[in-house]
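[job 0417] fold request received: Anion permease
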Amino acid sequence: MVVVGLVVLGAVVLFVTEWLPVDVTAIAIVVSLVVLEPWTGISPTEGISGFSSPATATVLAMLIPSAGISRTGLVQILGRRIAAFAGDSLDRQLLATVGAAGPVSAFVNNTPVVAVLVPVISEVANEGPTAGWGSTGW
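[job 0417] inference complete; emitting structure tokens
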């Protein structure tokens, strides 16, 4: 338990600080747990078994088009328009997010909607004057 706890603690630190890219951190966690098998009890078969999960494959399949859409510049355009609408109001940012995701979610599964809109919402967060929560005192 101590070894797994230390791996989890290290993972949290790496995810928060982003000292390594998030994807590298995630793979490093799996590798660490497998390499430390005598103390963690995670065999190589168990370590990679999650990659065969339909949920993992679905999320990966949705993130690929999301990355493609981001590269077209459409995400940045949509993000700037939503940020311009929302201004510095967190309520308007929330309204814009729900307004973009809600109608699409009525007709499409939520997983692809999230995968496509994550970069848009990230763009809104980066473009908006409230980026970093500085103006709200958080």
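[job 0417] notes: Confidence is low (pLDDT under 50) at residues 134-138. Helices lie at 2-17, 22-35, 37-40, 44-49, 54-72, 74-86, 90-105, 110-127.
[job 0417] exit 0
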